[in-house]
C-alpha cells in the first residue's frame, strides 16, 4: 500500500512541462509520467523531439500529449492552456522549464539578445504561471487528488545566486525568477497553491553542450562541482516529482538547489 502510493505519487494529476521536448524538461516529463501524471509536453519549434518524448512515455505505459506554444507569447500560452483544460478539465502541476541562453560579453550584448532571453526565461514563466494559477483558483481544492490546490515549479538555476559574466541576460532572468517565484508563493499560499523553484547546477543537456565539448572543458567544469560529477536530467526529474507530490506539501517559496554543491563556493575549499 505504502509502496504503490510512493511509486505513483502523482496519480490522477495533470501536469504541463514547458520545454518538455528536450534536456531537463524531457527528464521531468518522463519522471512525472512514471509517477502516474498525465503529462503535456510543451515545445515551441521541435515537434519531432516532443513526439519522441511522448512516444517514450506512452511506450512505457504512461500518458502524454505534445502541445505547441511559444511561452513568450501570451496568445500561444492561452491557447495551450485552453487545449489542456478542454481535454482534461483542469491542471494540477505546472513545471515552468523553458529557457534559453544567448551569450555575449556585456559590452557587446545587443538589446535583442537581452530581450529574447528575458522574454522566454522570465516573461514566459510569468505567463504560464498566471494561467495555471487562474485555473487552480477557479477549480478550487481537490483533496482526494492532492493536498495542495495546485503546484508550480519554476526551473531556475544556480545563477539565481551566482553572478555570470558573459551571460548577464541569463543570470538576470534567473534572479528575476527567484522574486517571481517567492512573490507568487506569498500571494497564492492562501489558495493552497505551492510555488517553488529548482536550481539546477550543471546538467548534461543541449543548452551547455559547448561547455562540455572537450575533455579539458569537462575537467574545468568539474572543478566547480564538489560532488565530482555532472548532473543528468533524471536527477532533476526525481526532485521535481517529489516537490510536486504531497510529500513536499509544507514547502512553498523555496529554491531547491540540485547542483552537486556548485553553490558551496568550491573555490574556497582550500581556504581561498
Ligand atoms: P534545453 O535547450 O535542452 O531545453 C530548453 C527547452 O526550452 C527546449 O525544450 C526548448 O524547446 C524550450 N524552449 C526554448 N524556447 C522556447 C519558447 N519560446 N517557448 C517554449 N519552449 C521553449 O536546455 P535545458 O538544459 O534542458 O534547459 C531547461 C531549463 O533548465 C532552462 O530553464 C535552463 O535555464 C535550466 N537550467 C539548465 C541547466 C543545465 O545545466 N542544463 C542549469 C540550470 C538551469
TrEMBL record:
SUPFAM superfamilies, A to Z: NAD(P)-binding Rossmann-fold domains
Signal peptide positions on this chain: none
Highest taxon above the source species: Bacteria
Pfam families in the record: adh_short_C2 (PF13561)
Gene3D superfamilies attached to this UniProt entry: NAD(P)-binding Rossmann-like Domain
NCBIfam families xref list: PRK07231.1, PRK12826.1-2
Stated family: Belongs to the short-chain dehydrogenases/reductases (SDR) family.
Protein name: SDR family oxidoreductase
Organism: Hymenobacter duratus
Amino acid at each position: 500500500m505504502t509502496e504503490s502510493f510512493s511509486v505513483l505519487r502523482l496519480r490522477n494529476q495533470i501536469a504541463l512541462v514547458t520545454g518538455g521536448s528536450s534536456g531537463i524538461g524531457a527528464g521531468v516529463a518522463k519522471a512525472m509520467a512514471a509517477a502516474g501524471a498525465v503529462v503535456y509536453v510543451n515545445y515551441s519549434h521541435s515537434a519531432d523531439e516532443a513526439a519522441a518524448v511522448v512516444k517514450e512515455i506512452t511506450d512505457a505505459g504512461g500518458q502524454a500529449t505534445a502541445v505547441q506554444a511559444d511561452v513568450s507569447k501570451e496568445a500561444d500560452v492561452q491557447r495551450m492552456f485552453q487545449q489542456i483544460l478542454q481535454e482534461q478539465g483542469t491542471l494540477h502541476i505546472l513545471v515552468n522549464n523553458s529557457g534559453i541562453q544567448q551569450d555575449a560579453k556585456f559590452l557587446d550584448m545587443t538589446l535583442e539578445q537581452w530581450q529574447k532571453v528575458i522574454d522566454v526565461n522570465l516573461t514566459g514563466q510569468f505567463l504560464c504561471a498566471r494561467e495555471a494559477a487562474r485555473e487552480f483558483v477557479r477549480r478550487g481544492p481537490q483533496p482526494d487528488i492532492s493536498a495542495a490546490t495546485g503546484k508550480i515549479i519554476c526551473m531556475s538555476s544556480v545563477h539565481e545566486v551566482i553572478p555570470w559574466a558573459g551571460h548577464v541576460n541569463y543570470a538576470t532572468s534567473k534572479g528575476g525568477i527567484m522574486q517571481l517565484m517567492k512573490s507568487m508563493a506569498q500571494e497564492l499560499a492562501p489558495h493552497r497553491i505551492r510555488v517553488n523553484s529548482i536550481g539546477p547546477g550543471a546538467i548534461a543537456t543541449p543548452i551547455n553542450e559547448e561547455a562540455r565539448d572537450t575533455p579539458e572543458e569537462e575537467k574545468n567544469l568539474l572543478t566547480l562541482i564538489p560532488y565530482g560529477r555532472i548532473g543528468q536530467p533524471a536527477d532533476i526529474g526525481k526532485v521535481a516529482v517529489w516537490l510536486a507530490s504531497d510529500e513536499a506539501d509544507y514547502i512553498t517559496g523555496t529554491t531547491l538547489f540540485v547542483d552537486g554543491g556548485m553553490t558551496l563556493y568550491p573555490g574556497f575549499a582550500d581556504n581561498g
